[in-house]
Amino acid sequence: MPTPTPEKVEQFRQQLKADWTRDDTVAAWRKWHKQIAEFTRGASDALLAEANLQPGHHVLDLASGVGDPALRIAQLVGPSGRVVATDVGAGMMSLAAELAAQQNLHNIEFKEAAADSLPFPDASFDVVTCRFGAMFFPDLQKALGECQRVLKPGGKVVFLVWGNRDQPFTTTTVGVLLNFVKPPEPDPDAPSMFMFGVCGRFESALKDAGYNSVKEEHLSVPARWSGSVEEFWIQFTEVAAPFKPLLAKLPPAKREDVRLDVIAGLQKYVKDGHITFPLEVVLASASK
Hints:
Elements: H1 6-21, H2 23-39, H3 41-51, E1 58-62, H4 70-77, E2 82-87, H5 90-102, E3 108-112, E4 125-131, H6 140-150, E5 151-162, H7 168-171, H8 174-177, H9 201-208, E6 212-225, H10 229-239, H11 244-249, H12 252-267, E7 270-271, E8 274-287
Parallel strand pairs: 1-2, 1-4, 2-3, 4-5
Antiparallel strand pairs: 5-8, 6-8, 7-8
């Protein structure tokens, strides 16, 4: 996989921080965190099953956001274990810290850190995890190298990312939005939400970084939104940082057209009063 120039990497890094540390985005994730955690629980379950965490493990969780799955990891490794949750900004992690205190979890700490420049000594962790974050790493190969550096010999990395672009979650939301507004032409070197939907891409990246026992699986995991269809759309417009600028470009009448089309599409997946569809994800793991 080609490595972008240092100038591009810095550009991607600044955009990532701008997207995910804005006050309105942080506020939205705080507002919807319970519903999102429930909706994506199947994805978290898949990552945790692959990680095979044990009491006493020291774990680094990257792109932890509001704490899912870092808080569950802290429960799994127990008081004898330790979790370091990281993110590019402190805003979202502030909620995770509040939730950890509420759950009486004393084996987790929170640190602002970028995946490609981890502020930890060599061989510090038994496992490195990352859920829905690696597709946004500005310099993927450097990040994978940093993960390998901080792993103990024989340690494991487990990543879960979005898979195929054409899946119900995206065709009913992003796909509809893109019918109304054309996004800027993407930089081919830029990280993107669905970059690992191509079979073998993450596997190749891990092998290029020198990992052993590399595995890539394309999975469908269950997702269930317990609120209304209207709430799902409102949530998406507030938390989907990469797509908020596109929606903002539309005049009010067109935004209403998008809303109506999204709601009509989502209605097809309502079962027993809840939105239910599979999330297409990629689970990649390897050892040092």
